[in-house]
Amino acid sequence: MTGLWHDEDGQMVVELAVIAPVVIVVCIVVMNLMQFMGQVALFDRVAPDAVMSQAVSPSGEDAQAGGQRELVRQTILDAMDAGPRVDVSVTTLSSLEAGSTDDDALLGFSFAPNLTRYVCVLSFTPWPSSLSIAGVDAAIPFRLTHRRTFTVDCYSPGVFF
């Protein structure tokens, strides 16, 4: 009768030891993706309002110096109340500079020299960004990014092109 009995006392522990790290990694990836998607949804609501309120009709020296870029960036960050893993960058390109690179095909030649394109980029660093296990260092070499582009006329408040 003892020949029919198989000793399987440790099988469940071994299966758990093999599957648990995979489940933990999948949960971390899903958590990071959900946080990124939440930040993207918030960014998509906040960025147009920030560009419309801060970039249109800049006054004084801001119009020449491009100081409205930092104002737009700071408005987006303040509205998002983002953590340390989220960064926002804002770049501008006027319609007079439109023929300088191949990426500017959307603006093209314009008879309205007051058009400015604002490119707002959300960058998200997944967690954990670096990890050290048993003396082996591992780091995530990428950031997730999301980009929104808005073209505005500096002298027409509330108008996107």
Task: Provide an overview of this structure.
The chain is α+β, with helices and mostly antiparallel strands. It has three helices and five strands, in the order αααβββββ. The strands form two sheets. A three-stranded antiparallel beta sheet has the order 1-2-5, covered by helices on one side. The protein has a two-stranded antiparallel ribbon with strand order 3-4. β3 and β4 (136-139) form a beta hairpin.
How are the SSEs placed, and which strands pair?
Layout: H1 11-54, H2 61-65, H3 68-80, E1 86-94, E2 115-124, E3 130-133, E4 136-139, E5 144-153
Antiparallel strand pairs: 1-2, 2-5, 3-4
Helix pairs in contact: 1-3
In short:
This protein is an alpha+beta fold and 161 residues long. It has one domain.
- Total DSSP E strands: 5
- Characterize the overall form: elongated
- Radius of gyration, in angstroms, nearest whole number: 25 Å
Low-confidence stretches: none
Spatial arrangement of strands, main beta sheet: 1-2-5
Largest sheet: 3 strands, antiparallel
Count the helices. How many?
Answer: 3
Return the average pLDDT rounded to an integer.
78
How would you spell out the order of helices and strands?
A: HHHEEEEE
Determine the N-to-C terminus distance: 84 Å
* Broad structural category: alpha+beta
Name the beta content range.
15-25%
Helix-residue proportion? 25-40%
Number of individual domains: 1
